Amino acid sequence: MKVCSKCRIEKPLNQFINDYRLKSGKGAKCVLCVSEYNKARRLNGLVKPPSEERRQYQREYDKKWAKANRHKKRESFKKWAGRNPVKRKLGNMNRRFTIKNDRFEITPKEMKALRHSSCAVCGSKEQIEIDHIIPLAKGGRHSIGNLQALCAKCNRSKGAKFLIVFRKENNLLAKG
Ligand SMILES: [Zn+2]
Ligand SMILES: [Zn+2]
């Protein structure tokens, strides 16, 4: 327990702000008092938005911190993911493509257009999924040139085959 220097209330240590410059690792004020103080400063226009330089520094710092604190990062990510299931799913998609292709080359607009087009094989508009024409596993890129809309049924039967093989097997190639 510790007494907050501001509100003078005795509180457990975990309710005090972290301050790694201090030996105890904890600041003199409780979390509530500090957040109130910061809020007042913001409301009074005393807080300037951070400069680009400062933001860059923060990004670097966050990266380093995340590297050194993988476990903590995972925990906080899990909490965030629990609150934001949809964003989490999108993030997973992006990360998967980013790892394999080092770049996520499709704009949200292109993605949207793709989602609203009809199946490239049977023309159905039901359960459209986005498919890589050349599979990522075979070196295809996650870019608009390598993406097509497929209905769930056609997508299932395509699997990881090349579209040309798939079309041949299904007699879908243009004659002549
Ligand atoms: Zn306090
Ligand atoms: Zn189809």
Task: Tell me what you see in this structure.
The chain has 176 residues and is α+β, with helices and mostly antiparallel strands. The protein folds into two domains: 2-43; 85-169, DNA Binding (I), subunit A (Orthogonal Bundle), CATH 1.10.30. 47% of the residues lie in helices and 12% in strands. It is built from seven helices and six strands. A two-stranded antiparallel ribbon has the order 1-2. A two-stranded antiparallel sheet has the order 3-4. Strands 5-6 form a two-stranded antiparallel ribbon. A hairpin with a 6-residue loop joins β1 (2-3) and β2 (10-11). α3 (70-83) packs across α4. The longest helix is centred in the middle third of the chain and has 17 residues, at 52-68. It is elongated and about 80 Å long. One zinc ion (ZN) binds at residues 119, 121-122, 124, 150-151, 153-154.
CATH architecture term of the largest domain: Orthogonal Bundle
Helix content: 40-55%
Report how far apart the termini are.
84 Å
Number of domains in the coordinates?
Answer: 2
Strand line-up across the major sheet: 1-2
Structural class: alpha+beta
Report the CATH C-level class of the largest domain.
Answer: Mainly Alpha
- Biggest sheet features: 2 strands, antiparallel
Number of helices: 7
Poorly predicted spans: 99-103
What is the residue-averaged pLDDT? 80
Taken as a percent bin, the fraction of beta residues is: 5-15%
The small-molecule ligands in this entry are:
zinc ion
Annotation, overall tally of beta strands? 6
Task: Give the overall shape, derived from the CA principal axes.
Answer: elongated
Order of helices and strands: EEEEHHHHHEEHH
CATH fold-type name of the largest domain: DNA Binding (I), subunit A
Q: Radius of gyration from the CA trace?
A: 26 Å
